Fold this sequence. Notes:
The complex is a heterodimer.
Chain A: H1 2-6, H2 8-41, H3 45-59, H4 63-76, H5 83-108, H6 112-120, H7 125-155, H8 167-177, H9 182-210
Chain B: E1 7-16, E2 19-29, E3 34-38, H1 45-52, E4 60-65, E5 68-69, H2 74-83, E6 84-87, H3 99-109, H4 115-128, H5 144-156, E7 162-166, H6 174-189, E8 193-197, H7 201-207, E9 210-215, E10 218-223, H8 225-230, H9 235-246
Helix pairs in contact in B: 3-4, 3-5, 4-5, 5-6
The structure holds adenosine-5'-triphosphate and magnesium ion (MG).
Amino acid sequence: MDVLIDNADVLFRAFGVTLKLLLVSGLLSLLFGTVLAAMRVGPVRVLNVAGTVYVNIFRNNPLLILLLLLFFGLPKLGIHFSYFNLNVLALTLYTSPFICEALRAGVNSIPIGQAEAARSIGLGFTQTMRHVVLPQAFRAVVPPVASVLIALTKNTSLVSIFGLLDLTARMKGLLNDYPSQLWWIFIGIALFYVVIVELISLGAALLERRWRIA
Amino acid sequence: MVDTPMVAMRGVQKHFGSLHVLQDIELEVARGEVVVVIGPSGSGKSTLCRTINRLETIDAGSIEIDGRPLPEEGKALADLRADVGMVFQSFNLFAHKTIRENVTLGPIRVRKASKADADRRADELLERVGIQAQADKYPAQLSGGQQQRVAIARALAMDPKVMLFDEPTSALDPEMIKEVLDVMVDLAKGGMTMIVVTHEMGFARTAADRVLFMADGRIVEQNTPDQFFTNPESDRAKDFLGKILKH
Ligand SMILES: Nc1ncnc2c1ncn2[C@@H]1O[C@H](COP(=O)(O)OP(=O)(O)OP(=O)(O)O)[C@@H](O)[C@H]1O
Ligand SMILES: [Mg+2]
């Protein structure tokens, strides 16, 4: 137990790193994932294909491979990112296709008849999306998007391998220094992750309630 | 002024893969005319309706609305669709919007009406179709008959030149059919140009100027309702009427 109290400042700083990583890559993934989804459901053929190819490549490869590739590959191309940005980039590239697919499933869950009705009163594609399809799709996708963000939370732990002092990196450090306190260290670190995941679940529940169709 | 037909289809062909769903369609619907389309399942009635506001594209031929050819895509097409009202079998109300919002969406976003004007007009229309009291509810809280009347009000809010109905009552319980047909009869009497796919013979007899009978993607026969129902010419029509009249 003492190990947690003695190292509280270090742990909270690590918690901050994990949170910041999650927030930045989560927001970027939501943005880029939405763009990808728009490409995939939109009327432009080239974009459909580009979106599909991207999703299939990045969703079907392990995050670790992507991290390794960026970590060792980008410097070879003369591109230098800070550790933080590099990890954010990898997490975003990896998570966006999952967001995209969750959104796309949401869009597809809205009966096509409603989109036809919207077009038949003269709304264009963008207006139909904006006023009819997306507002309903967003409600439908809250639970799956929350799952993706929860997975992202856990995926952030991989960055500990690549030089960022997040919760998982700190756990390894503490384990070295206090081998006898293994269980306490584990419980302490796990609690931080549980808090994050519970916050995401709570946020999702609130959004779902607020957006519920009357 | 020569009377341009409100809807003119000339030499229209449409395939779904190898299936020839619309064959050599020639159709003119005059201003204020009410045309009822009947025919067996799969004969192409829905497809015919849907090509008129280009929810389905055609392979050959031409379609004109009030003398203007159907635009290909984009803004011009959206504008034209705004002039062609459509009522679907499954109502297709916007589930996340209130009844009033369903009716005002088009006027506000497409016609750029002010919210106040659109609301006022929506309430008038909802009054006319008998559901003013439900204006603040959501579609799921209404019966099928009520939802379909909202769908009609939503189409009317765009002041369409012509209204298309694709089996508007066939998803409804019998006791709700009449309330929807009554609204449609009123519209017909008010001079609206209408193309109505329906098997409701009562409606055809009271409101239609002409009945089109379709089979296998063709318009096989057309006549006044009276002539058509008492004296069908083609064997296909006789056969079909024999089947539906039994019920
Ligand atoms: N999107 C589509 N793709 C492929 N085939 C289609 C499509 N829509 C309709 N069809 C086929 O085209 C034919 C005509 O269909 P349509 O819906 O126009 O018939 P209908 O006369 O309205 O029939 P019903 O009385 O059952 O509504 C049918 O054989 C149908 O299976
Ligand atoms: Mg049909």
